[in-house]
Design brief:
The chain has 10 helices and 16 strands. Helix 1 crosses helix 3 and helix 4 crosses helix 8. Bound molecules: zinc ion (2 copies). InterPro entries: Znf_MYND.
Amino acid sequence: MPADIVETTVMGDFTFVKAVTPPDGYNTSSDGPSIPAKDIKAYRESLIIACSFCHKSFRYKLVCAKCKVAAYCSKECQKKQWPLHKFVCQESKAAAKLKLVTTLMSIPRFELTLMSTFAFTFGLHKKMILDRPLIMQCDLAVDAADMSIIFSLTSGKQTPDDYPDGVEGMLQLKWFSPLDPAVVIDPGRRKIWEEARAKNHVKRRAPIGKYVTGLIDFHMEGTDQVITMPLNIADQAIALSRMVAGGVCAQDPVLRHEINVPFSPRVAIGTMDMIIRDDKKNHLRLRTHMPKEALYKYVGNNINEHDLDMLPTTTYATKDGKRIKTAVPRLNGPY
Ligand SMILES: [Zn+2]
Ligand SMILES: [Zn+2]
């Protein structure tokens, strides 16, 4: 497929091309070792998540068959929650399911990025906050993996009827925002936080209150459901947030020159999204089917301009008309 170019910049002999559809063979995910699927699966299954009814933490087990978002520790809890859950449990049009969230959290480079973005957002590199739950909202969506489809739909060149069987979708992060715990904390979240915090301290053989435990509220686009997951912030992530606070070094692998860009959650989101987007072979298991109905979000009044802004493009370079294998500007320093 030819590259769908949105912007070109000439620098010396090189032309930098920003494209929505990178040329075939271009794959930044080859930068990092891919994680064997069985390792992602094993880690995902070892994750502790909270029961949507009793909020007790348990190992990934029982998921609502209809929406595939709500999780329960037992059939009893699922039954007890149903009178309330039925109002939010529409068969999710958005396709952003619990499995994608837990897979995201099972990929070490993403988990560390989430932790350090969390630490940065709450200023933990300057001052530790240990006595209360900190909560970050993370908006998630599933977008068409082939972005030319998105542009064809938003521009009206095509309609979802052109894709009766749906298309391949991919998980994308849309936004991080810190929430005021005084406002959003409820007994359920407090229980999740207290349990995760206690377990983390037992694991690290330390008195409670020594390490930071946060909560992430994953908001799934197209549903009113929220998945709250604990995040025990590793020391490494605090150190990382301290380093990125001074800006991050984006290195161009062709020109080898480095530029300093101020770090923001958006930098972190953009980088993660681009890695997912360029993972065409789905090593990361963050791709999923996107049914035809889900494509209506790209049509007419349903379009969320903010979400469109967040769609990552891919940068690559050419010299003498030939494409040079390059990579997404990487956050490669100083850590
Ligand atoms: Zn339960
Ligand atoms: Zn459900």
